[in-house]
Design brief:
Elements: H1 51-54, H2 57-62, H3 68-74, H4 81-93, H5 102-107, H6 117-122, E1 152-153, E2 159-162, H7 197-209, E3 215-218, H8 228-240, E4 246-250, H9 253-256, H10 259-263, H11 265-280, E5 284-289, H12 299-310, E6 314-320, H13 329-342, E7 345-350, H14 365-375, E8 386-391, E9 396-399, E10 405-407, E11 412-416, E12 425-429, H15 437-444, H16 446-464
Parallel strand pairs: 2-3, 3-4, 4-5, 5-6, 6-7, 7-8
Antiparallel strand pairs: 1-2, 8-9, 10-11, 11-12
The structure holds pyridoxal-5'-phosphate and iron/sulfur cluster (SF4).
């Protein structure tokens, strides 16, 4: 039962308090207004779907949209036919597989699919794709170069990234791991990282052999796809190692299929048991998730997150700054506040990685600087995310503000990472289309291109001195 507060009753005083500024009206506190009810029934294919069915994670998986024809069938009549043709075109050109859950389909505003932030993340349209930046590579973070065992990246001293599998509940267009995640597409043949106990055993052996390792990020793919026994196996194996103090299970799940937490009891139990086991040992198992836009958070999300919180699971969020999804200050502020409201801790906002086929989704470093300035101060400091750039070339995450030099005209930011790769420099490039026509022309010429980068390195070196 909600307790109703009566401001005339003790412990409130009846003395007059002179307000210094007007109270904010509840209807303006938009972050608290989550989508309610059976909103999915607005989608033609889900018109007759009741709550129990829609919340069933197996139904969600089975009815995920993996092909433009299925999309057409699902949203029949909602979006113009020209849009679906555009999707067909985008699908043929994109490096990622298509997989969109009914939950996501129901969260998209089909009146305006071109501008919808969820459509933008998961469904490519041919007409909006931009040519790649000349400096762009498929594994831009060099995760494979820092991998002593396939699927285990040991870049930082005390933490490592373990990829136990390569499937996800959805496929994101902007995925950093498009070198491995998803099925082969017309554009890319993937590195294979399937569920493979032999490969896992090698990773565990390496982790146990390195005293300096304390923290393991279990990612993927996506840990939503791990069977409960695999969650337990990975969790228990790692927690038993003396050196390991912290584990994070990373999943986009809560953002794209929150109902699984409510209806796949065994999966949720496995995660909660691992968190409990960790606590009993003075260690930590946390869930790291990935919301990008406030419209991904509905009453179902809140209910799922509340369940995890009530069982003691700590949840952090890592967003990606994406053009048309959250690259304006007000949307980001709303996202951060809404996450805080449901009990998820906003941890990072990443610059979009320099991966192939998604040039239309990237933003400038300057955009991140501007948004950070706006968000900071709007809520608790510990709920204010750090804006980072995972430096291409394997420098690791850097605070976006910490560049040694930023050439805004040519869109080159130069970072150093003394504790990760001392003595090296790392560059992030603003999207070509965000530059002036003159600067775009400079990038087209290979000689000028090298000169621009040399100059940026030189200036960064001077600045660092
Ligand atoms: C992001 C990442 C980590 C974890 O870094 P935090 O800053 O602690 O979140 C670990 N290893 C790799 C390779 C990573 O990319
Ligand atoms: S869920 Fe994560 S790993 Fe999977 S496609 Fe999306 S960003 Fe990539």
């Amino acid at each position: 039962m909600t307790q109703v507060i009566d401001p005339t009753m003790p412990p409130y005083t009846d003395e007059e308090v002179t307000p210094l500024k007007p109270a904010v009206q509840p209807e303006q506190l938009q972050h608290r207004h989550l989508r309610e009810g059976e909103f999915w029934r607005e989608i033609p294919a889900y018109k007759e779907v009741d709550e129990a069915t829609f919340l069933d994670h197996i139904w969600q998986g089975k009815n995920s949209v993996t092909h433009p024809d299925k999309l057409l069938e699902t949203i029949k009549g909602l979006a113009p036919a020209a849009f679906v043709d555009d999707v067909r075109d985008g699908f043929a050109k994109a490096p990622m597989s298509l997989r969109v859950s009914p939950y996501m389909i129901a969260c998209i505003d089909w009146q305006d699919p071109y501008r919808d932030p969820i459509r933008t993340q998961f469904i490519p349209v041919g007409s909006r794709l931009s040519p790649d930046h000349p400096m762009l590579k498929l594994d831009s973070l060099h995760e494979q170069e820092d991998a002593p065992v396939p699927g285990l990246t040991h870049r930082y001293v005390d933490k490592a990234l373990f990829l136990p599998l390569d499937t996800c509940p959805v496929y994101c267009r902007f995925c950093t791991r498009s070198y491995a995640v998803g099925l082969d597409t017309e554009q890319v043949e993937k590195v294979q990282l399937g569920v493979n106990p032999k490969r896992w055993a090698k990773a565990f052996k390496y982790i146990a052999s390195r005293p300096e390792l304390e923290d393991i990020v279990v990612s993927g793919g996506d840990t939503y796809q791990l069977a409960p026994r695999n969650i337990r196996q990975i969790g228990e194996t790692l927690l038993k190692m003396d050196n390991i103090r912290r584990i994070r299970f990373a999943t986009k799940g809560p953002a794209v299929m929150p109902m699984k937490i409510l209806t796949h009891g065994d999966w949720t139990d496995a995660l909660c048991e691992m968190a409990e086991l960790a606590r009993s040992m003075g260690k930590e198992v946390a869930l790291h998730t990935h919301f990008n836009n406030p419209s991904e958070i509905t009453w179902i999300t809140q209910k799922a997150i509340q369940l995890l919180i009530s069982r003691g699971v700590y949840i952090r969020n890592q967003s990606v700054l994406i053009r048309g999804v959250n690259d304006d200050p007000e949307t980001m502020r709303l996202l951060v506040k809404r996450l805080g409201h449901i009990g998820v801790h906003p941890y990072y906002v990443y610059m979009h990685d320099m991966v192939a086929g998604v040039e239309d989704l990237r933003t400038r470093v300057q955009t991140a600087l501007d948004i950070e300035k706006y968000v900071r101060g709007s809520t608790a400091g510990f709920n204010t995310p750090t804006f980072v750039c995972d430096a291409p070339g394997g420098g690791g995450k850097r605070d976006v503000h910490s560049f040694e030099y930023y050439d805004r005209d040519n869109g080159i930011a130069v970072y150093v990472a003394p504790s990760v790769k001392p003595g090296q420099m790392f560059m992030y490039f603003d999207p070509i289309k965000s530059l002036s026509p003159e600067a775009q022309a400079r990038w087209q010429d290979p000689v000028t291109r090298e000169e621009m980068m040399d100059e940026a390195r030189r200036k960064a070196m001077d600045a660092a001195r």
